[in-house]
């Protein structure tokens, strides 16, 4: 008897890969960027499908395929999840401590820099006629 | 940054100027502003002098090991006093405009 296609393994693997590559999309929105729960949910769904598929492949091998591809795809999926977790929970957290950054109650250091029209802009210019300045330091687009 | 642009009218209504600072050149800032529709100024600190002054330098984190700014947000009042700071623990997590607005609302209650 021809054995059945073990769809759970393949779908699970595709969902895990999708969980990795959808980060660029989910990172566009603060709610899914601040904590990557959307990506982790996809990993969980994909992982559950892979486990289900492996149980079928090894539990009823006369009925289902996947004894070779199942472990291979599961191993690749685990590596992808490990890579994602390393990047998100370790690499992106390697931020300097900035212990000497101005604190609440301290005077903000002055500056004079060129804006996008090459006009010099200082902190005093920004504060004149306004009640506060929200100063946003960002990594840049290079 | 995009989220700040989306909420810019709320900053304007309170008299808060939003401004970005990075190591990018004015040319890049001009292009980015046009591309992303930013109407607040982007300031250029190519040698990271101001970035160092605020101690928000991320050494070697830029292209080819260049020094760049780490994400950080400050709310400065009209007497140049820092009233609120956000120093993120992850590059992926940055201040949301609502946080800055609520920090401002707390230091300057409406109607003043």
List the helices and strands and how they pair.
The complex is a heterodimer of chains A (142) and B (112).
Chain A: H1 7-21, H2 23-26, H3 30-33, H4 37-59, H5 69-89, E1 112-114, E2 120-122, H6 123-127, E3 132-137
Antiparallel strand pairs in A: 1-2
Chain B: H1 2-6, H2 8-14, E1 16-22, H3 26-36, E2 42-44, H4 49-53, E3 57-58, E4 68-69, E5 72-77, E6 82-87, H5 97-107
Parallel strand pairs in B: 1-2
Antiparallel strand pairs in B: 3-4, 5-6
Describe the structure.
The complex is a heterodimer of chains A (142) and B (112). Chain A has helices spanning 7-21, 23-26, 30-33, 37-59, 69-89, 123-127, and strands at residues 112-114, 120-122, 132-137. In chain A, helix 1 packs antiparallel against helix 4. Chain A has 6 helices and 3 strands. Chain A is rod-shaped, with a radius of gyration of 25 Å. The termini of chain A are far apart. In chain A, 51% of the residues lie in helices and 8% in strands. In chain A, 30% of the residues are buried. The mean pLDDT of chain A is 95. Chain A has a domain at 7-93. With 142 residues, chain A is mainly alpha-helical. In chain A, strands 1-2 form a two-stranded antiparallel sheet. Chain B is 35% helix and 23% strand. With 112 residues, chain B is of the alpha+beta class. Chain B starts with a helix and ends in a 5-residue tail after the last helix. The longest helix of chain B has 11 residues, at 26-36. Chain B has 5 helices and 6 strands; from the N terminus they run H-H-E-H-E-H-E-E-E-E-H. The mean pLDDT of chain B is 94. Chain B has helices spanning 2-6, 8-14, 26-36, 49-53, 97-107; strands spanning 16-22, 42-44, 57-58, 68-69, 72-77, 82-87. Chain B has one domain (2-107): Glutaredoxin (3-Layer(aba) Sandwich), CATH 3.40.30.10. Classes of the chains: A mainly alpha (142), B alpha+beta (112). Chains A and B meet through helix 6 and strand 3 of A and strand 1, helix 3, strand 2, helix 4 and strand 3 of B.
